[in-house]
Amino acid sequence: MMPQHHLSEDLLLAYAAGNLSEGWTIAVASHLAFCPQCRAQSAQADMLGGAMLDTIDPEPLANDAWSAMRARLDADVQLAKALPARATAPGKLVLPMPLRAYVGGDIDTIHWRALGRGAAQMMLPTSDPTTQVRLLRIPAGKPVPEHSHGGREVTLVLSGSFRDGEQLFGPGDIEDADGSVLHTPTATPEADCICLAVTDAPLRFSSWIVRLIQPILKI
Amino acid sequence: MTLLLLQVGRSRDVEAFEALFRHFGPRIKAYMAKVDRNRAEELTQETMMSVWRKASLFDATRGVAASWIFTIARNQRIDALRRDRRAEIDPDDPALVPETPMAADQALDISQNVRLMREAMATLPSEQLQVLELSFYQEQSQSEIATRLALPLGTVKSRMRLGFAKLRAVLEGGSKQP
Ligand SMILES: [Zn+2]
Asked: Which of B21, B117, B128, B160 to mutate to test the interface with A (most CBs of A within 10 A)?
């Protein structure tokens, strides 16, 4: 089944323009793998990028630019790497590619850490200090464990489903909540729900950074 | 331009590549200069080197030369100037949920899309074009744009959304014509 809850246009546009930080790009790229509809929109946003590049006021290149380029072509032996033979996956893959790279494998390789009451999480390491990225496992029929987030939270369902108020979120669906919304997502009773959650990094972290660099910047 | 790129991909045609370089090089340089003037020339060379190396991976059913080269220049700029990482979709991922066969049958002719998009951009209200340009050229986030233009964030968001919706409508109308 195709996803019913999609990426907002501002996420898609920011992803195309290249001004989305790493944490959010993980949610965007993963949803795109689930969703042909958003892939088509993302291609249109890249088209806009292409049109922007085409209409920019060109800047003349250095006089020797082409000869320098030409010399590099001649010296270049590194061709595009042939795509690795596609491993015929024994079972069906659950996690799409950008996520498998962060996890180090598919859903069975996730290193869960218990959060209590059957819930578990795995923090995904990124180089982006402005977000936190985690996988969450919510036991069937149970609510998402208490978690405070002041800012934005983008959740992508990977398997199972959860209900939030009137709405049902299944595999591939995105829930995009800002901090002002009080919500209690609850896994549906049939199966555990596994999802990706990207949030703004907690405030105390950024103030810790500020404290750290304050003496250096003398602010 | 798209045919030239296909030629480079198929037969590593240096003349076709030179034509691409002369067209896109000065544009890529201008795009890089929006963020770092000192490194613009160097990053143009790096971008065109990636174009040369990856041309055989270009898929003309998914994009045109300008949009594909834009994505390479954008990723180069993120890599070199922001030192940020970026998660990318892998179009060959076996886990990818495919399009419905019906949608694939109705594959649209996208070869004219950049031209349609350029023409549509010229008809956008300047306030909508301005926020889209700041986002794509200057790589500014919506809140940075709001601060720069002294506008409420909601206004920036809605201008961007309206502008993009108009451009998409042109593409969808334009490519369905026989
Ligand atoms: Zn979608």
From this structure: B117
pTM for this entry: 0.88
Q: What residues of B are in contact with residue A96 (Cβ under 8 Å)? A: 89-90, 93, 95-96
Q: What is the CATH number of domain B2-85?
A: 1.10.1740.10
The tens digit of pLDDT for each residue in A85-126 reads 555 555 688 899 989 999 999 999 999 999 888 899 999 999
Taking the CA of residue A139 and the nearest CA in chain B, the distance in Å comes to: 24
The answer, for A103 touching chain B at a CB cutoff of 8 Å, is no
Alpha carbon of A31: minimum distance to chain B alpha carbons (Å): 9
CA-angle at B142, arms to B139 and B148, nearest 5°: 80
Residue of A nearest to B73 (CA): A53
Considering only the top CATH level, what class is A107-217?
A: mainly beta
Out of 3.40.50.10860, 1.10.10.10, 2.30.38.10, 3.30.420.40, the CATH code matching B119-171 is 1.10.10.10
Q: What is the ipTM of this complex?
A: 0.92
